[in-house]
Amino acid sequence: MHIKVGTRGSKLALTQTNYVVEALKKAAPETEAEICVIKTSGDIMQDVSLAQIGGQGVFVKEIEEALLAGSIDLAVHSMKDVPGETPEGLTFAALMPREDARDVLVSRGNVKMEFMPKGAKIGTGSLRRAAQIKAMLPDINIFSLRGNIDTRLKKIETENLTGVILAAAGMKRMGYLEKITQYLPIELMLPAVGQGALGLQTRKGDTELAELCGKLNHQQTFAEVSAERSYLRTLGGGCRLPIAAYGLLEGKRLTLEGLIAAPNGSEVIRDKVWGEIGAAEELGKRLADLILEKGGRRLLELMC
What we know:
Radius of gyration: 19 Å
CATH superfamily of the largest domain: Periplasmic binding protein-like II
CATH topology of the largest domain: D-Maltodextrin-Binding Protein, domain 2
Largest sheet: 5 strands, mixed
Helix content: 25-40%
CATH class of the largest domain: Alpha Beta
CATH architecture of the largest domain: 3-Layer(aba) Sandwich
Structural class: alpha/beta
Strand content: 25-35%
């Protein structure tokens, strides 16, 4: 089987895609794979914030279009970049084992978050991260940040930042663990939906490729991320409010925690639900309903 694999062109995206290709070849040694780099609007428009150019979807839209058009056979996505709704005709055939879902702080002088001075400048391009930081430490200044991991790390020096917030998964995959100042606990910084997970997206009806990808599927990750994505869809994932969720499967019990927040961190609505592994979709809907009832609906009406 010859497979054209679509991906973004960043160093991290190519590292992740090569990891997937090697796993596919291990599962089916006769497989040949060609990596096709696709520029997304999120990659091209580096000088504007993600919220301004549409938020979720800006790193996957062009790749999904190539998949639907038949230019590629398989797309590799960071699941935190994928909107709640999957386009008609496409499906996720597998999710790879999830890497660490937490966020991390990289700071000047290795200063931890709890010891940040008043007025410290923290870099992030994420509304979710910014809102949770402001909720914890209202005196922190948020510096809007775009670019790949190397670019964001360099801006600690070039923009005189106190620190930047990044995903632990990307730092690990790039071999940058020694640069991390602090892993931010889930209790303080709830991750993005799907953070740390890689998704293998195919066309519906491409059964041979779906079966091959299915050999790589990680059941725990699939259950956790399915619950998170159900939560995102039910809230209406196109809204530019800070939204976060984290699913955790322990034994047969699946716990799902989620939040919605005001962009300035002045209000954070957070709750959790739990149930059986087979109830992932239902858990997402139930949690979204709880969050909406606790004030999330009012925030959505104000901001969306």
